[in-house]
From TrEMBL:
Binds 3 Mg(2+) ions per subunit. It comes from Williamsoniiplasma somnilux. Its main location: cytoplasm. Mg(2+) 1 binds at E410, E417. This is Lysine--tRNA ligase. The lineage of its organism: Bacteria, Bacillati, Mycoplasmatota, Mollicutes, Entomoplasmatales. It is an enzyme of class 6 (ligase). GO terms for molecular function: ATP binding; lysine-tRNA ligase activity; magnesium ion binding; tRNA binding. SUPFAM superfamilies: Class II aaRS and biotin synthetases, Nucleic acid-binding proteins.
Length: 500
């Protein structure tokens, strides 16, 4: 297959340079390996504090490092200064013709920004005090056939930042730090839960029924069984089966798929952690959630006083706890603690210009609509909102004092949901009735309603101990702790709309 792309002038020139290297027996793509005895960050950390004179007085030691050329400037006809960058840092190279030879220096001057080279040399500082590696040998390891964006302007098209993440990572060290922080946050959660004796597991991504969350699924056809499967919208129901099986604490960090829109907070595939612990309730999970978030923050930030956008948050303070009904009463004065009919609740909603769908057929649905409309966006400090109506919580245990509500909470920070947790419903007869109610909602037009899952009902009939579970959105947590505006900023390869 021929390459019919229209090449820029720079791309043509770089290909000509590569052809010349091949003709001279210098094809960089034939090199399979380059041994480094240090990395740039280690050299900067070790030798940065010393003066020019102190470095000159040290015993001569050769260092072999590699990186991508980010800056190239000639110092007359016989010397050049070059900056190279590896994963964590950059350093200046000082290259002289009389040290590497005229032929090698001629080839060196023909290198381009973006080329990857390996070098061997000794540490020094320039008259201006800049730490540098004085090059004795160099090897071209990879030729960049496409030019990098201007180092000051970067990638101008925000969409291109996400489509060509590899270029964004090359040009912006802060972007790279976000993803290094993401890795630290995930490792911190794993270490914390492992140390508590909980086990990380893997559950299927292909499900025969949609359940565990209110969301629209992706549907895939499995040819061998001639049957449609759903890409999982949650890991909940399989993880609870493991609690039935005798494990007392299990969690999974993995991809979830929801066939919904894309915006600054949503991507059709995202990462969550779900955790289930036997013999505990949702109050225990509130305490553990605070601990998880604080320890994750401490892994990536120097203080529990953090900034997100223009909002300052104090993660040292205990998280607020707010009943959903109290939140509505505080904001607009309507008291849903009082007993009322669905017709009366619907009338209140219409008076407040809240849209009521056909499947919103209970007071509980109306309470949730009021919360979403008038309370959710007003929450700033980390707040556990609890007491969700039973109608919107098909997998949650009823509250012992008021069966209109469940022992469920969601964590909100600056108007965004970060976690959803509840004491698990372990009564198989009630769970069957809840699934039936979900089927009726689906028939009334709710395409996010759960299916009936008879296998899960049978698991509950085998016996699920008192259990609490939680789901935490990893992407949103990373956004919060790295002060990232969009979910695309914390996903290496976010889903994008077609260019056309």
């Amino acid at each position: 297959m021929s390459d019919n792309r229209r090449l820029s002038e720079q791309e043509i020139i770089r290909r000509e340079k590569y052809a010349k290297l091949v003709a001279e027996g210098q094809d960089p793509y034939k090199i399979t390996k380059f041994i480094r005895n240090s990395n740039i960050k280690a050299l900067v950390t070790k030798f940065g504090p010393f003066s020019k004179e102190e470095l000159a007085a040290m015993p001569v030691e050769a260092f072999q490092i590699a990186g991508r050329i980010k800056l190239f400037r000639e110092a007359g006809k016989k010397a050049a200064f070059v900056n190279i960058q590896d994963q964590d840092a950059s350093i200046q190279l000082y290259v002289r013709m009389d040290e590497i030879g005229e032929e090698n220096f001629t080839r060196f001057r023909d290198l381009d920004l973006g080329d990857i080279i390996g070098v061997n040399g000794t540490m020094m500082k320039t008259d201006h005090g800049e730490l540098s590696l004085r090059v004795k040998e160099y090897t071209l390891l990879s030729k960049a056939l496409r030019p990098l964006p201007d180092k000051h302007a970067g990638i101008q098209d925000i969409e291109e930042k996400y489509r060509r993440r590899y270029v964004d990572l090359i040009m912006n060290q802060d972007v790279k730090k976000v993803f290094q922080s993401r890795s630290k946050i995930i490792r911190t959660i794993q270490k914390l839960l492992d140390n508590m004796g909980y086990m990380e597991v893997e559950t299927p991504m292909l499900h025969v029924s949609k359940g565990g969350a209110a969301a629209k699924p992706f549907i895939s056809h499995y040819n061998a069984l001639d049957r449609d499967f759903y890409l999982r919208i949650a890991t909940e129901l399989h993880l609870k089966r493991l609690i039935v099986g005798g494990f007392e604490g299990v969690y999974e960090i993995g991809r979830i798929f929801r066939n919904e829109g894309m915006d600054t907070r949503h991507n059709p595939e995202f990462t969550s952690i779900e955790l289930y612990i036997a013999y505990q309730d949702f109050y225990f999970m509130m305490d553990l959630t605070e601990r998880i978030i604080r320890e994750c923050n401490q892994a990536v930030n120097p203080s529990n006083q953090i900034v997100y956008g223009d909002v300052h948050l104090d993660l040292d303070k205990p998280f607020k706890r707010l009943h959903m009904v109290d939140g509505i009463k505080e904001q607009i004065g309507i008291d849903f603690w009082k007993s009322m009919s669905f017709e009366d609740a619907k009338k209140l909603a219409l008076e407040k210009h809240i849209k009521v769908e056909k499947h919103h057929n209970s007071v509980g649905h109306i309470i949730n609509l009021f919360f979403e409309e008038f309370v959710e966006s007003k929450i700033v400090e980390p707040t556990f909102v609890y007491g969700h109506p039973v109608e919107i919580s098909p997998l949650s245990k009823l509250n012992g004092d008021d069966p209109r509500f469940t022992d469920r909470f969601e964590l909100f920070i600056i108007g965004r949901e970060y976690a959803n947790a509840f004491t698990e419903l372990n009564n198989p007869m009630q769970q069957f009735e809840r699934f039936e109610a979900q089927i009726k909602e689906a028939e009334a037009g709710n395409d996010e309603a759960n299916d009936m899952d008879i296998d899960f009902i049978e698991a509950l009939e085998t016996g699920l101990p008192p259990t609490v579970g939680i789901g935490i959105g990893i992407d949103r947590l990373v956004m919060l702790l790295t002060n990232s505006e969009s979910i695309k900023d914390v996903l290496l390869f976010p889903q994008m709309k077609p260019r056309d």
